[in-house]
Design a protein that fits this description.
elongated, 3 helices, Methane Monooxygenase Hydroxylase, Chain G, domain 1
Length: 84
Amino acid sequence: MANHKSALKRVRQTETRNELNRYQSKTARNAVRKLRGTADKKEAEKLLPEVTSMLDKLAKKNLIHKNKAANLKSSVKRHVNTLK
């Protein structure tokens, strides 16, 4: 266990950050899944900006690699463009 006051604070901060990061990552993954499962073009076009924004934020915070975010955005946009 931590022996210093600052180390105890660091443990608390890390737990808080991990929880927030886990929530944001899971939310983005679910949003991508929902968008890929959508067959309606109007609904997909409405979801697309939200999903791309989530992925950009995750990449900015280094929760996912920037190239992974770019690949996901590209595949999602391709899916939306193929819908009728």
